[in-house]
Amino acid sequence: CPSKFYVEHGFDGHINCYFPQSQRIFWYDSTSRNARPIISLEEGRKSGSGYSDGKYDILNNGGLLIRNTTFNDERTYRVIVIVSSTSTFTVDQKVVIYANTQTTVLSVNVCGEDSFCSIPKLSTPLVCRKSKTGPHTLLTWTRITSVGTQLAEATRYGSFDGSLYETYISTNVTVNLKDRVVVYICTSTINIPSKPVRQIVVMVEDEDKDFTTSALLPTYYREYDDVKLLCTNDNPLYLVWKRKTNVTNYVTIGYYYKGTSKVSEPGYELGEDGSLLIKRFSYQQEGEYICIYNSGNEEDTQQYHIKSVVTPASPTPSIVGCLEAHRIAHLM
Fold this sequence. Notes:
The protein is mainly beta. The protein contains 2 helices and 27 strands. It has helices at 49-52, 322-331; strands at residues 4-8, 13-18, 24-28, 39-42, 45-47, 56-58, 62-66, 75-84, 87-98, 105-108, 116-120, 126-133, 137-145, 148-151, 155-160, 165-171, 181-190, 198-205, 219-222, 227-229, 238-244, 250-257, 260-263, 268-270, 276-278, 287-294, 299-309. The strands form 6 sheets. A 6-stranded mixed sheet has the order 1-9-8-3-4-5. A 6-stranded mixed sheet has the order 19-27-26-21-22-23, with no helix packed on it. It is elongated and about 100 Å long. Residues 2-106, 216-307 form the Immunoglobulin domain. InterPro entries: Ig-like_dom_sf (IPR036179), Ig-like_fold (IPR013783), Ig_sub (IPR003599). It comes from Stichopus japonicus.
């Protein structure tokens, strides 16, 4: 038999062992010497408390069937097989129960279930939660700044309602003195082979910190043309695009992390390299733009000042005097 079996919560579990020519089989839900068998097979007859209540059965190959598994069924089972009066062997089998990954829910208090969000710096902790899960879920917070990537200090706690688990992890937001934007990532892993890793990325901006800007001469683009503003050529790890709304205020119009982006203002898109794309540029999108980006070791900015210019329609040429003569000739 394999030493470990994985079973999805709520489904039947099969410990697929094969015991040829066995005469007597005894399955236990414990490895204690004082345990009593939950089900046994002797001379073709099955018995035991687990067989009577329908929870367990012995398969044709001698393996164990566990019906409608719960997390309480996760344990080490022992089987004793008596082949003859001189031949007996014992095998221990570990059964691991895991939750359905399609129904588990990963969320963060400031993002909900969105996989990517951007927020201003808050005084309250970031709390990541995995619900409808099992005991093998591990949550971590990772913090990315100009000084590198590291696990964030965090507090873990959880609960069990008798059927499924909820797991939480919280961390306090801290921003380096030289950074305006940092990234926090909640990662959910399950200690089960071939199960997916899930993440929620939270971009945090300390809006109390100023960024350096300079006066720029405007760059003109024709109205209704597509405009592309490059943030950097240095393969940014993450960035934020902002637009100036008045003398001191900027609004976030889009943000980007490792090729994934979101926009919060209509009329804009972000390219795969983090460039800001403006489709059919209009005078309403004129103004100053700034990109705050980080390539993993330093935060920097890129500015633009853009304005629109209207291209007049092509006029129809005419010669004064000729047009009047043509009109009189037409009337005659």
